[in-house]
């Protein structure tokens, strides 16, 4: 059984704050779209709007990368794509295993966006013996008995858990013992991991609950019924909008120090 949990400093050793790291994928997504349209340069304002981030924050974030843009020209799109990809470690191939190949695991396995971002699905693992050998997204499912062997053979450091909640901790422990040091957890449970292991969790129902909160607030504003929380100031009363995220992943740390992986779009 794993003991301890992940504790990451707010600033990484190379001096890039976690909040900046959490925004880099948003910039990369916006920049990739520009690159696909062969747009050579972009201003901080344009890129900030496309990424849904405040432009002053964007300039500050890019200063950590040593990227300041050129006055009157803006940022070189291709170079920024390269710089951010390098910073995020995406210039190398990352083998990933998915454990739990039910509805969600199969959908993740079929998602083409992993491969295009440098994440190769090295193996699909499930505890159901009836699934062993059956192809999902062209990859034969392997039984959990082989988990340790698969991790070792493929040098896997990132594991995705899509099992029922009751199995997730045990799966996590086995992944970590086999050498996995980063876990993306879709199961609705809090995982305990040793120091040095990063856990990010994705829970779409939590995101929906946050949207429901804002919907309720907007409805209250329309009818003039403003709740006590709306008296706390403009920062707290503004509804979530794509152009103005209300929280970054690192702002919403879970009780165990793991971090929701879904960012405001
Ligand atoms: N985070 C989200 O937004 C989100 C969305 C949907 C589902 N979920 C969660 O994802 C998980 C999977 O959901 P689903 O609908 O795909 O369920 P599912 O029942 O279709 O699939 C679960 C799979 O896990 C396998 N499994 C069970 N125990 C295992 C173990 N110890 N080792 C390996 N495999 C094991 C089962 O054989 C099955 O194939 C659930 O925990 C669910 O709550 C999360």
Automatic annotation (TrEMBL):
One of its GO terms (molecular function) is DNA binding. Keywords: Cytoplasm, DNA-binding, NAD, Repressor, Transcription, Transcription regulation. Gene3D superfamilies: NAD(P)-binding Rossmann-like Domain, Winged helix-like DNA-binding domain superfamily/Winged helix DNA-binding domain. Residues 89-190 form the CoA-binding domain. Residues 219-265 are annotated as: Disordered. Residues 237-249 have a biased composition (Low complexity). One of its GO terms (cellular component) is cytoplasm. Belongs to the transcriptional regulatory Rex family. It is found in: Cytoplasm. It comes from Streptomyces noursei (Streptomyces albulus). NAD(+) binds at residues 100-105. One of its GO terms (biological process) is negative regulation of DNA-templated transcription. InterPro entries: CoA-bd, NAD(P)-bd_dom_sf, Rex_actinobacterial-type, Rex_DNA-bd_C_dom, Tscrpt_rep_Rex, WH-like_DNA-bd_sf, WH_DNA-bd_sf. This is Redox-sensing transcriptional repressor Rex. Modulates transcription in response to changes in cellular NADH/NAD(+) redox state.
């Amino acid at each position: 059984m794993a003991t301890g949990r992940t504790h990451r400093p707010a600033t990484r050793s190379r001096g890039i704050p976690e909040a900046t790291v959490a925004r880099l994928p948003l910039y990369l997504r916006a920049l990739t779209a520009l690159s696909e349209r062969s747009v050579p340069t972009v201003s901080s304002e344009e890129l900030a709007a496309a990424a849904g981030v405040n432009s002053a924050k964007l300039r500050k974030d890019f200063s950590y990368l040593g990227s300041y843009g050129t006055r009157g020209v803006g940022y070189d799109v291709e170079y920024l794509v390269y710089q951010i990809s390098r910073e995020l470690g995406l210039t190398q191939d990352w083998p990933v295993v998915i454990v739990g190949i039910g509805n969600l695991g199969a959908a993740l396995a079929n998602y083409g966006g992993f491969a295009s971002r440098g994440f190769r699905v090295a193996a699909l693992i499930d505890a159901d013996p009836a699934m062993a050998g059956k192809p999902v997204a062209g990859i034969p499912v392997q039984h959990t008995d082989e988990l340790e062997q698969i991790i070792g053979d493929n040098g896997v450091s990132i594991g995705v858990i899509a099992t029922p909640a009751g199995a997730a901790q045990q799966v996590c422990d086995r992944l970590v013992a086999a050498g996995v040091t980063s876990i993306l957890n879709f199961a609705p449970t809090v995982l305990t991991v040793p120091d040095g292991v990063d856990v990010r969790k994705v829970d779409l129902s939590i995101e929906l609950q946050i949207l429901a909160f804002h919907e309720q607030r907007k409805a209250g504003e329309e009818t003039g019924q403003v709740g006590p929380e709306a008296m706390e100031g403009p920062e707290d009363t503004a509804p979530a909008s794509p152009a103005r995220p209300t929280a970054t992943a690192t702002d919403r740390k879970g009780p165990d120090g793991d971090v929701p992986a879904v960012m405001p779009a």
